[in-house]
């Protein structure tokens, strides 16, 4: 018996419509990504929209051992001071970090009025004579009268161990460092308060020779031009202070292979070589054009300086331009949005059962994975380093590894669980990375203890993949417990699929965590002369290996079944989170990177949540049975 032609045509039309809807969904996601390519380029200032600063944003400077574009310096500095990368304007709109930096560098009186300093502690607010209210950001003008007391309280707080500091002490230390950074930024490209920087540079150079003669005459006790000598000495003192207090090094070296210099340092060296550095003069002229509101001159001078540096340092400028584009696109933020979309699609698939939703979730997940991967590869290109160099990059890499494994599971099982799990971990790890980025530049130079050889790169990558797999297994187990004991709609087939997923993922995690730990020992033997030193981080890596091995042995020996496997896998989240973050905050060992109060609080909260899920996994069946019995008795009584 043949199918009716009209029904066949309707089925084909439905299939075509479904395919079209799938591609339309993907097109919308791609449009979201393409729209982000130009977003955040910071070329416009809402207050003075005729200005363009794309060329200035790409100008390089040396800071903390790494060459960075001005755009990165602006963003990381504003993050440290304000906790944001954009400032809200009173009249509406937002001011990009690069425009804020221009104000700080060239228009100190205007910048001092901006409410940029984040203060959310009542005791610190009382210290600066402010009341707790709707706003949490304050200007330098509001803080300036109290800087002496802030410095005094900071000195007292610095004497207390980091783990023992009160919230007031931590906040006042943060405020003191932010104020110090702000001040150093103001000294970076000119002497604060200067109104005609370029003319001031040339006047100083014109004063040097006659001023030196006047100094020699004074030393011999002969008549000399006292006013000229005083003017030269005052100007020189300003440049000495600038050389001492400036934050970054914007002036290229005098000779190839030399060191980059601070602005004041380059001017003073110009006295010895008989001329001002052209880059220093260019920065001074850019500042004059900015203060004068001459947008055409400003853009022209910044473009000329960029082209000049491009011809002398082509590779450096390519990286600086690429980093500006990376900052503007914000790949990890866009990946987070896509992970949320993928998770929601998987959840609606479980509720509705439409295969289209399952495909949509997988499409969003794969796009998020591509953006996540591109972001990681971009960081590697900018840094010239392996993917994992600090806690921030480890969070990015753990998320990427988990998403890849989750996508593979979704490809095998096609039940939405792999998509949901991968998107949860991808989003949470990038959220962790975002909060870690609030400390400033995330592409810092590697710590000396870590900056060594190939064994380290392979060890960190492999052991971090072990972290990712262990977290993936634990998150799959969380979904099992949530759907079976809290929501109560986990069928037997899906439960068995989850069991196979968790088992296979733990096998993968055991292999990679074990091999990564061994590679770490080989690296430690070559770098420190010992294979194992019972360092907290080493112990944490060993705990992950041992716990995964315990899970496998418990399963192989029949000591646990499906539910027990899930509970043990959830505890793996606790072991891994402590080994990943907790050991870094102990303050001891070669891997201790310092105590972070916010991270410690969230770590404890995470551990408590996992223990709660374990309790549900252990006693959830009994609780549900007791609940049903209670409802039955209530119905009978009614």
Which features does this protein show?
two-stranded antiparallel sheet; mainly alpha; 24 helices; 3% strand; 638 residues
Summed up:
Helices cover 71% and strands 3% of the residues. It is built from 24 helices and six strands.
Helix/strand order, N-terminal first: HHEEHEEHHEHEHHHHHHHHHHHHHHHHHH
- The largest sheet has its strands arranged as 1-2
Strand content: under 5%
Q: What number is the mean pLDDT? A: 86
Number of DSSP helical runs? 24
Total number of strands: 6
C-alpha end-to-end distance: 57 Å
Low-confidence stretches: none
Instruction: Describe the largest sheet.
Output: 2 strands, antiparallel
Helix content: over 70%
The SS-based structural class is mainly alpha
Q: Can you tell me the overall shape? A: elongated
Radius of gyration from CA coordinates:
30 Å
What does this protein look like?
- With 638 residues, the chain is an all-alpha fold.
- Among the domains are: 197-292, no CATH class; 330-446; 459-638.
- Helices cover 71% and strands 3% of the residues.
- It has 24 helices and six strands.
- It has a two-stranded antiparallel ribbon.
- The longest helix has 41 residues, at 597-637.
- It is elongated, with a radius of gyration of 30 Å.
- The mean pLDDT is 86.
């Amino acid at each position: 018996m043949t199918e009716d032609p009209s029904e066949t045509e309707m089925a084909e039309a439905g299939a075509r419509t479904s395919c079209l809807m799938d591609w339309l969904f993907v097109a919308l996601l791609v449009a979201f990504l393409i729209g982000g390519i130009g977003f955040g380029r910071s070329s416009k200032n809402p207050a003075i929209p005729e200005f363009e600063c794309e060329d200035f944003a790409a100008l390089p400077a040396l800071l903390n051992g790494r060459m960075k574009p001005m755009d990165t310096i602006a963003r990381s500095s504003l993050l440290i001071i304000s906790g944001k990368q954009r400032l809200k304007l009173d009249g509406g709109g937002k001011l990009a970090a690069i425009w804020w930096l221009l104000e700080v560098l060239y228009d100190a009186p205007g910048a001092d009025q901006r409410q940029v300093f984040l203060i959310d502690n009542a005791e610190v607010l009382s210290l600066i004579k402010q009341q707790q209210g709707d706003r949490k950001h304050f200007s330098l003008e509001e803080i300036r009268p109290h800087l002496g007391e802030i410095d005094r309280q900071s000195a007292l707080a610095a004497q207390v161990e980091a783990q023992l500091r009160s919230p007031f002490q931590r906040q006042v230390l943060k405020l003191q460092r932010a104020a110090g950074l702000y001040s150093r930024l103001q000294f970076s490209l000119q002497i604060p308060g200067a109104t005609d920087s370029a003319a001031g540079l040339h006047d100083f150079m014109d004063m040097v020779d006659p001023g030196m003669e006047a100094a020699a005459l004074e030393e011999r006790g002969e008549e000399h031009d006292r006013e000229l000598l005083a003017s030269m000495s005052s100007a020189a003192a300003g440049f000495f202070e600038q050389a001492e207090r400036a934050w970054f090094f914007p002036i290229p070296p005098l000779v190839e292979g030399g060191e980059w210099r601070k602005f004041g340092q380059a001017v003073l060296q110009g006295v010895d070589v008989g001329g001002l550095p052209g880059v220093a003069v260019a920065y001074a002229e850019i500042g004059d054009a900015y203060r004068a509101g001459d947008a055409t001159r400003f853009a022209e001078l910044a473009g000329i300086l960029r082209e000049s540096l491009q011809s002398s340092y082509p590779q450096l400028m390519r990286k600086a331009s690429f980093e500006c584009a990376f900052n503007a696109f914000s790949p990890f933020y866009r990946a987070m949005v896509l992970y949320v979309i993928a998770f929601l699609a998987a959840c609606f698939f479980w509720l509705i059962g439409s295969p289209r939703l399952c495909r949509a979730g997988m499409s969003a997940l794969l796009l998020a994975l591509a953006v996540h991967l591109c972001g990681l590869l971009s960081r590697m290109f900018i840094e010239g380093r392996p993917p994992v160099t600090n806690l921030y990059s480890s969070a990015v890499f753990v998320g990427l590894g988990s998403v890849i494994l989750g996508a593979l599971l979704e490809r095998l099982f096609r039940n939405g669980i792999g998509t949901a799990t991968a998107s949860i971990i991808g989003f949470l790890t990038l959220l962790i990375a975002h909060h870690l980025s609030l400390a400033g530049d995330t592409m810092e130079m590697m710590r000396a203890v870590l900056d060594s050889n190939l064994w380290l790169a392979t060890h960190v990558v492999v052991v971090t993949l072990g972290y990712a797999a262990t977290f993936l297994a634990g998150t799959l187990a969380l979904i099992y417990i949530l759907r079976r004991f809290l929501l109560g709609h986990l069928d037997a087939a899906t439960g068995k699929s989850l069991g196979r997923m968790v088992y296979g993922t733990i096998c993968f995690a055991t292999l990679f965590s074990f091999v990564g730990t061994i590679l770490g020992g080989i690296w430690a033997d070559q770098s420190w002369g010992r294979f194992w030193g019972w360092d907290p981080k080493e112990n944490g890596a060993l705990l992950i290996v041992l716990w995964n091995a315990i899970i496998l042995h418990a399963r192989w020996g029949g000591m646990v079944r499906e539910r027990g496997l899930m509970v043990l896998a959830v505890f793996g989240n606790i072991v891994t989170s402590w080994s990943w973050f907790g050991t870094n905050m102990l303050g001891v060992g070669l891997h201790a990177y310092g105590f972070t109060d916010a991270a410690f609080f969230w770590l404890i909260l995470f551990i408590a949540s996992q223990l709660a899920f374990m309790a549900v996994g252990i006693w959830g069946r009994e609780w549900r049975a007791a609940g049903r019995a209670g409802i039955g008795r209530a119905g009978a009584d009614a």
